[in-house]
């Protein structure tokens, strides 16, 4: 980690931001999940919830339970803890990847041909590369259950659509730059759609409601 | 019969108005799943409403945006309207807001418009029977979570238990009304991305007034200033955001994140509006102006403490209003020549004589 990081600062009256870097880096992202996992598992006084970002963690607390300085101190103590440097448990907990079935191309993946053409590849090669990679969920955002995953191999990394679609079907698997993701619900979107899964990504009645969790490993397979 | 618990109390929506949604404190604990907290935008008025109705601070209410709401009562209930300066009519009779009223079968409640502010909260004693999704009854319009916004012909079930009669003597004094000025000073604490703005832009952020554009909704308020706010590096990493976060996109026009804002965003964050003033922004409308004023986090915390004290004082004052509310069987408010009179009715014990 670079000198001066991680930085811990107050975000609002009831939240603290821990910043690990200013740059996007899958290695840095691992630290975010480690800290979030430590806080969830160990439990710290006054903790409410947290939001993992690419390179930072926003942690909310209950101001009526704890004063802001003591809460910040708890976070700093965790970061200085030896276990934080090497949380083997976390790596074990997240080691098992989830495999998601995807129907590639055709109606389900309207941009597969264009992506293949963009890289001078055959569509089957794009599918092969997309399914051979093991991805990590960097964070969930944009809409409930939308997982930003990566790193997508450079050989198929493609910019977003110039004209975003007004409606992307739920379950659509897309790529954008060096990331891949799945649209949980019908929504507008600018990612290149390679295929679609039947799996339900977000269900309010499920616990946790999102199928994919920050830090989780994900693999796709063609059906 | 009058005091029986009406299990079938309900409200029929004659007109939902411009936009009316169910809102409680919000949906917390699911931001890591990409779920927005939602909840009441003007949190202060929402809290006062539930305080007025003597119920849990998380009880669902109706957030009425811009007015137009018309309801038909079925059963007997007690209701109150708090937030902004709503024009409130009960069977065509104008009533002051911030007070508790009785209504019964056939009564029509109408909030045609707001004189000041843009949203008001309608609550009933006992709350609405709206299923909770992930711990909250709040409507999340974007994610389609919770009850959809009200529409014509809908029926809202209320659990209307017998209310203590003393409630009708309560009112919210005008100094506690949350009404913004034409040019409103808004207090902020320093943003976590301040280093991503040139010093000159930060200075101009605090010196110029910003106008509220017509791009305002429950997700965010877009502002317009004379000088755009510049960003040093145009590189965006999606990170957690919260209600009150002021983000600056490359266009240079700041956006204040509101209750329905996503859990994360990619633009640099120049400032964070203090919680007390988020409620004020929620009442501002296009054309009004904001001047940002920097405060320390400690100041924001003591403002929150003051607010808690204000609420406690208010509650105490209500207890004084009717020292022995239980003695009264009913409490009426009469409107005579434009003036209000309160009338308590006591049961007289024939053996001992009345008082």
What does this structure look like?
The complex is a heterodimer of chains A (223) and B (355). Chain A has helices at 26-42, 68-80, 82-85, 88-93, 112-118, 123-132; strands at 7-12, 15-19, 47-52, 56-61, 98-104, 135-140, 147-150, 165-168, 172-176, 179-182, 187-189, 192-196, 217-222. With 223 residues, chain A is α+β, with helices and mostly antiparallel strands. Chain A has two domains: 7-93, Gyrase A, domain 2; 98-222, Cyclophilin-like (Cyclophilin, Beta Barrel), CATH 2.40.100.10. In chain A, the strands form three sheets. Chain A has a seven-stranded mixed sheet. Chain A has a four-stranded antiparallel sheet with strand order 1-2-4-3, covered by helices on one side. Chain A has a two-stranded antiparallel ribbon with strand order 8-11. Chain A starts with 6 loop residues before the first strand and ends with a strand. Chain B is α+β, with helices and mostly antiparallel strands. The relative contact order of chain B is 0.16. Chain B has four helices and 24 strands. Chain B is 14% helix and 33% strand. The two termini of chain B are 24 Å apart.
The secondary-structure element order of chain A is EEHEEHHHEHHEEEEEEEE
Q: Whole-number average pLDDT of chain B?
A: 90
- Mean pLDDT across all amino acids of chain A: 91
Category by helix and strand content of chain B:
alpha+beta
CATH class call of the largest domain in chain A: Mainly Beta
- Tell me the overall shape of chain A: elongated
Number of helices of chain A: 6
Based on CA atoms alone, the radius of gyration of chain B comes out at 22 Å
In which order are the strands of the major sheet of chain A placed? 7-6-13-5-12-9-10
Largest interface chains and counts:
A-B, 44 and 35 residues
State Rg of chain A.
19 Å
Distance from N terminus to C terminus of chain B (CA atoms, Å) equals 24 Å
Low-confidence stretches of chain A: none
Terminal Cα separation of chain A, in Å? 41 Å
Tell me about the largest β-sheet of chain B.
Answer: 7 strands, mixed, barrel
